[in-house]
Design a protein that fits this description.
This protein is α+β, with helices and mostly antiparallel strands. Helix content is 28%, strand content 20%. Strand 1 (44-46) and strand 2 (49-52) form a beta hairpin.
């Protein structure tokens, strides 16, 4: 039996994809030191959430890809909902939840166009690592998402946990 979360480790933005960079004494740098050494700044918008664009550092985009892999396995999808090399999706909004240097969640808004109507951003998917669920992480940022994007549609299929979240925060499913 395959464990959908623990065989894909969260990406640590402190280590990247190989060895952690070392200082002059040969000691591995910690998150804050590593980001400064490579000129990576986190523009955290609120509560650990960071906007990720096609121009964001590859480490952040790969972290969102890992969250998409967790989502694909949990929801039994055939394909990933996000790829780090998406260059033609600059109108989409991708947010990563970062805690202690690990990307532990993501929310992706995709630009959708209806026939004859103006394009609108809809919540395509959101997923959080099990360790971060039911701790109010999404609840904290939800009012900001609503303030920025209005009454956006939420695309399905929805997990039972997301159905409960929407029922609690929106009053409907």
């Amino acid at each position: 039996m395959r464990n959908s979360y623990y065989d894909i480790k969260p990406v640590c933005v402190a280590k990247g994809f190989g060895m952690a960079p070392k200082n002059a004494d040969g000691d591995a740098l910690f998150c804050r030191d590593w980001r400064a050494a490579y000129g990576i700044t986190e523009e955290v918008i609120t509560g650990g959430w960071k906007l990720i664009t096609s121009r964001s550092h590859l480490i952040y985009r790969k972290g969102v890809e890992n969250v998409a892999a967790w989502f694909r396995r949990e929801m039994q999808f055939d394909f990933l909902q996000y790829h780090p090399d998406e260059r033609d999706r600059d109108n989409d909004r991708v947010y990563a939840y970062i805690e202690r240097g690990l990307i532990l969640g993501a929310a992706v808004f995709r630009l959708r166009e209806d026939k004859g109507e103006r394009p609108i951003l809809s919540l395509a998917w959101v997923n959080m690592h099990p360790y971060t669920r039911r701790r109010g992480v999404l609840s904290q940022v939800w009012p900001m998402f609503r303030a920025m994007y209005g009454d956006f549609p939420i695309e399905g299929p929805l997990s039972p946990a997301m159905q409960q979240f929407i029922l609690k925060h929106e009053g409907h499913q």
